Amino acid sequence: MSFRLTLVLVLLFVTSSHNVHAGEIFQSDNPERLWNDGEFTEGVAVRSDGVVFFSDIPGGSSKGRILEFNPVTERTTVFSSDSRKSNGLYFDSGDTLYACCGADGGARALCVVHDDGSVHPIVEQCNGVRLNSPNDLVVHPNGSIYFSDPRYRGSEPMEAAGMFVYRYVPATGRTTIAVRNIEKPNGVHVTRDGRTLFVAETNNGSTGLPGTDPGPVGRMTLNAFDLGSDGMPRNKRVLVDFGKETGVDGMAVDAEGRVFAAVRSPSRFGIGVYTSDGTELDFVATEALPTNCCFGVGNDRKTLYVTAGTGLYRLQLR
Fold this sequence. Notes:
This protein has 318 residues and is mainly beta. It has 1 helix and 26 strands. The relative contact order is 0.16.
């Protein structure tokens, strides 16, 4: 084989293996608004039949709710009128819906949401210490659940020695601290092969405790960890450092391991797409500060659903 032919084949291989370039992920830079009657939307998740669920988190004594959007009828209805301040939502492979329910009058627990919309706590403490305010979660392919436990608001006393990412194993009922070296964990997700855990570090310095002033802004980063056979994260890498700007809230990960992240930086907020080494591939601005995102399923799998501000939006992908 000639040198020239070999070079051509190598170039073709490289091109076909890396055929997505910056600006080529989203079909449009205008997210479509689907619903906008909430107070603070979060935690979007899609059931296997394509129905989209998301949280609406009110302040004060209001209970919070979970809504469902049907892509076929384009109607949004209330699924749970008392979500116990649900934030992050996630379906496991059997369509069981799990929720991170926060403080400020909420359950302060990892919960299961039943078909009738009732919310039942399954993890409220670890090693006898009450959780801060569970925020976001992801179900690993092996069924274990990683969830973050920061505190952004709520008057309830804080008992934990820090803000950690926990790992819960439904088969054993055991909960352990999985990540300690993140100042304030927010969004979490895993790759589809289960080998990498992504964690957003979003430290705004505030806990919401009465009589306390917000502390200095801490680290604002997007991080990756390797996951071994024991399920414990190791080998932390900082993929993106947002400096003193607010970083990532929730996120989704596609089949190629690219991270679709809800970036809340005041000077540039929207959905950013990053490779596994932190390279930005695309970015779409949202009309309100985004909180989370997830992919549709089936014929809707090239749709990214986004919670932002008081509403639910969608973006079409190439």
